[in-house]
Each structure stands twice: as C-alpha cells, then as structure tokens.
Design the sequence.
C-alpha cells in the first residue's frame, strides 16, 4: 500500500513539473509574458509540412527582435544566407496567439503559434516564400 502511494505521489509530482515546464500549468493558461520568456532563443525545424530545400533554417526570438534566417544553394559551391528581422509583439485573438512583426517590409507574416511540451508549434506563417508551418525544437547551445 505504501509503495503504490509513493509511486502515485511521484508520478503526480513529475506530471505537474512537466506541465509547468511546458507552460501548461493545470487550470492556468500561460500569459503572453510567459510565452515571450518561453520563446526566447533559437528554434530549428523538427517536422515541417513543406519540403525544406534549405541547408539551415532557424527562427530566433529575442526580447524585442524576431530573426529568421535560412541558408540555401548560392551556386558555385557557395551558400546564400537570407536573413529577415523585425521588431515584434505578441498578440492574442480568442484562442489564437500570434507573433506580429512590426516592420511591414520585413517579408515576415504574422505567425500563429502555440508552445507545447517545450516545442514551438507554428500553425501558420511565412518568411519570404518559405512556409514556417510545423514543429520547431529549441536549438541546443544558442541563447540570445
């Protein structure tokens, strides 16, 4: 009896810690300020709905700046790096949360997102002609 109670308490504590880390605290939805903290850093695609032709593809979120970069074939054994950056703000309309670029000519659309279990899930968004929709994982060792 004591053993099964200890297992139950341990599993419950682990589950609550995992939910807190993911921003999914029971009964409480993360605020936009919480999202801003969780979004800080660099993100690489883990699973994309579009075929990625780039050698590298990354979303970086800083306190006041959004940077999206990708490397592609530049011809002659060269890599062309395209960088797009803009100040941004986080907005919410109903259940949908968005990263809204403030620089209109930055070639970055509004990005509809959610944070789930430490991953960035992009439901909708473009950078140039590149589709951002998919699952993004935190890049290891890169902190803005």
Sequence:
């Amino acid at each position: 009896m004591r053993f099964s109670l200890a297992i139950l308490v341990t599993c419950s504590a682990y589950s609550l810690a995992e939910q807190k880390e993911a921003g999914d605290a029971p009964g409480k939805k993360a605020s936009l300020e919480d999202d801003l903290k969780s979004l800080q850093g660099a993100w690489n695609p883990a699973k994309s709905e579009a075929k990625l032709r780039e050698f590298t593809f990354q979303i970086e979120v800083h306190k006041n700046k959004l940077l999206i970069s990708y490397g592609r074939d530049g011809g002659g054994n060269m890599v062309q790096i395209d960088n797009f950056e803009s100040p941004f703000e986080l907005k919410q309309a109903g259940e949908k949360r968005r990263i809204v670029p403030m620089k209109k000519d930055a070639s970055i659309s509004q990005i509809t997102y959610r944070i789930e279990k430490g991953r960035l899930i992009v439901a909708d968004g473009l950078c140039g002609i590149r589709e951002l929709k998919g699952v993004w994982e935190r890049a290891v060792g890169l902190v803005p």
